[in-house]
Amino acid sequence: MSECLFRAVFSLRDTDKDLIIKSFKTLEREMRFSRGFVSIGADDDGVTIVVCARDLSSLRSLVNGVMKSLYLIFEAVNLGA
């Protein structure tokens, strides 16, 4: 997909970078379709998740998927603590 008209960026700090990256790499196929995609990157400060879409409906759908995934990851971590 070359056209990214709408974008949302999540910046995560003070989290388990490896867990977030591995989780989203696993979900990458589920969060990519003809009208949008999710990409993830890491640096020394933390993890950045970028949601890119052609229309607002697709952006909403992908953002919802990212939020649900983050919620589940953080809740699973809390259960193990």
Short description:
This protein has helices spanning 17-27, 56-80; strands spanning 6-13, 32-33, 36-42, 46-53. With 81 residues, the protein is α+β, with helices and mostly antiparallel strands. It has one domain (6-76): TATA-Binding Protein.
SSE diagram, text form:
Blueprint: E1 6-13, H1 17-27, E2 32-33, E3 36-42, E4 46-53, H2 56-80
Antiparallel strand pairs: 1-4, 2-3, 3-4
The coarse silhouette is: globular
Q: Class by helix and strand content? A: alpha+beta
The spatial strand order of the largest sheet comes to: 1-4-3-2
Kindly identify the CATH topology: TATA-Binding Protein
Our measurement of the CA-to-CA distance between the termini, rounded to an integer number of angstroms, reads 40 Å
CATH class annotation: Alpha Beta
Q: Which H/E pattern describes the elements?
A: EHEEEH
Instruction: Tally the structural domains.
Output: 1
Q: What is the total tally of β strands? A: 4
Rounded to an integer, what's the Rg over CA atoms? 13 Å
Binned, the helix content reads 40-55%
Largest sheet data: 4 strands, antiparallel
